Amino acid sequence: MILHRPIPDGFVIKTCTVVHKADGWYVTLSLSDDTVPAVSPDINLEKTVGIDVGLKDFLVTSEGEVVPIPQFARKSEKRRRLLNKALGRKRKKGTRRRQKAGKQLSKHYQKVARQRKDFHFKVAGQLLKQYDVIAHEALNIKGLAKTRLAKSILDAGWGEFIDIVTAKAERAGRLTVAVNPSGTTQNCSGCGIKVPKTLADRWHSCSHCGAELDRDLNAAINIKNLALGHWVSKAQRVSEAVAGVVEKPRLTA
Ligand SMILES: [Zn+2]
Fold this sequence. Notes:
The strands form three sheets. This protein has a five-stranded mixed β-sheet. Strands 1-2 form a two-stranded antiparallel sheet. The chain has six helices and nine strands, in the order βββββααβαααβββα. α1 (71-89) runs antiparallel to α2 (96-130) and α2 (96-130) packs across α5 (158-171). The termini are far apart. The protein has one domain (12-236). By secondary structure, it is an alpha/beta fold. The protein binds zinc ion. The site of zinc ion has 8 residues, from loops. Residues 188, 190-191, 193, 206, 208-209, 211 line the site of zinc ion.
């Protein structure tokens, strides 16, 4: 067997998964370590970022950073089509030629899945280096915006990416916040008014407050603001509760 990493001392093996992949058998162990912190108390809300799937990019942040779709994704799509065609030509089932073509295709899928995972880990690492709180749209919410459906090609892997960011953030004592996606594309990040857009509209132009910016950037800022609203209102509730406790003895005195 090939052991990628030794099992560190003090960890308890929680689960063991055995998977048969295109190029062999894999055993994955999940370990548990109670010394890993839950959420770090020194989270800086000023280091909050909103991220959104771009129309043409992998993601856009509320600070204007753009992560393009990686080169391998485009290249792999070409090769996938080629291999698929090759498989289609070998019609006779059970022949060695067909088996070989099938194996080539599944190996290709495996390779792309690994590249995508690597890419996701890299991007997640970059975000967590810069930010303490990462806000994104909640997935699988009923009544998703129509634009979201049209973005579904880019969405492939987005859920996977969010899972990686969330797990990595947890380990680093940081936070991810899922916000309600309703209105994030249409509403103005400057004044909150609704500025209707079709998919073809790449630019957000608000006649009410004069905001002029890229539509994806506008959405990412909305996502950030929604997350901050979430934390601000929570902090307010906490301070109100504390104030209530302080007031009471004074009233009875
Ligand atoms: Zn506006």
